[in-house]
């Protein structure tokens, strides 16, 4: 989920204050509730979208919940832009597989 959120946030190659705050909260929630710390994400400066798609492709089953997260993340700083829509569309194509 965190990687997809980051992918959507960085779709327009910028990060707003609201998006940065959202990522801080998401990382904290994952750490606090699930005791998961992703060191790669913690040190992330630039994201390789191909790496995120590979991670998603490696996950078994339905990923519709990840698609829902992407929809929510895209709206945190206002209207969804064209690049965010493109990523969400591709995610939707991949998320419904079983």
Short description:
The protein has 98 residues and is mainly alpha-helical.
The residue ranges in which pLDDT falls below 50 over 5 or more consecutive positions are none
Globally, the shape reads globular
Rounded Rg: 13 Å
Give the N-to-C terminal Cα separation: 18 Å
Percentage of residues assigned to helices:
55-70%
Which terms would index this structure?
single chain; mainly alpha; 0% strand; globular
Q: How would you explain this protein's 3D organization?
A:
By secondary structure, the chain is an all-alpha fold. The chain has one domain. The protein is built from six helices and no strands.
Secondary structure elements and their pairing?
Elements: H1 2-9, H2 17-34, H3 39-42, H4 49-58, H5 64-74, H6 82-95
Helix pairs in contact: 1-2, 1-5, 5-6
